[in-house]
Amino acid sequence: MSQDFDRGRELMERYAQGEDDVFEELYTLMAPRLYRFCLRLARRNPEADDVFQEAFLRLHRARATYLSGTNPLHWAFAIVRSIHLDRLRYRRRRPEQLGSAHDAADEVLVAADDRYNPETDVRAYDLAEVVARELQGMSEKNRVAYILLREEELSVQEAADVLGTTTAVVKQRAHRAYEQLRAAVGAAGWHPRDRTRGARIPAQVCHALSD
User: Fold this and answer.
1) In whole angstroms, what is the distance from residue 21 CA to residue 44 CA?
2) What are the start-end ranges of the E strands in 94-176?
3) N or C: which end of the chain has fewer CB within 10 A?
4) Is the pTM here over 0.70, yes or no?
């Protein structure tokens, strides 16, 4: 992780100074996590694609404003969130029906054993839908704070820098989101013992259940 940070910072500093030939490597380094973040915010693949493309366009246009020494991925996260907020404001003026955004590929495997029950898998994926809907329906500020801390694994200070707020506010927002998700998952009938039954538990459910 440290090597990626150092390399990304070096590439971004060179790109900010006008070295266009480093863009391909910078893109390769940043794209996977940045796209995942876009998908977590947008909730639908086509919209995430649009946000992702616009993020790199804005990054290119604003590259001269990059502050040397900062984490370029976190800077890009802030750009993505700005785009996302712009789109939310637009949707409030022109509301549309949003569909499910569950990605079956986004899962982690809990070690299976002879206690495995396929019904547990089904319940786990049902809970992934519960988590996705709950995230989509909660306050945008709480959701983004939760995603940055729980899913992107930023520190509280890093998340605060991305969001332009204080660490206390980030903690409060993330905690509210976490409690909301825990309540929703509990209401859906999930029990901690289900972890030990060989279920393929989608990553978002694991984040919501982690202590």
Assistant:
1) 32
2) 107-109
3) C
4) yes
Phi and psi at 117, nearest 5°, equal -130, 120
Smallest CA-to-CA distance from 185 within 140, 131, 107 is with 131
The Cβ of residue 209 has, within 10 Å, a number of other Cβ atoms equal to: 18
* Contact of 192 with 201, CB cutoff 8 Å: no
Coil/strand/helix, residue 202:
strand
Q: List the structure tokens of 103.
A: 């990605």
Helix (H, G, I), strand (E, B) or coil at 34: helix
* Measured distance CA(37)–CA(45) in Å, rounded: 11
pLDDT tens digit string along 43-101? 678 999 999 999 999 999 999 999 999 999 999 999 999 999 998 887 777 655 444 44
Report all structural domains of the chain as residue ranges with CATH numbers, in order of start. Answer: 2-93 (1.10.1740.10), 107-209 (1.10.10.10)
- Structure confidence at residue 23 as a pLDDT band (50, 70, 90): very high
- Tokens read off for 175: 């905690």
Mean pLDDT rounded to a whole number for the chain: 80
Q: Largest alpha-carbon pair distance within the chain?
A: 58
Residue 63 one-letter amino acid = R
Task: Give 57's DSSP letter.
Answer: H
Q: How far apart are CA 120 and CA 11, in angstroms?
A: 45
**Hey, what amino acid is at 75?**
W
Question: How far is it, in rounded angstroms, from Cα 175 to Cα 150?
Answer: 10
Strand partners, 201: 108
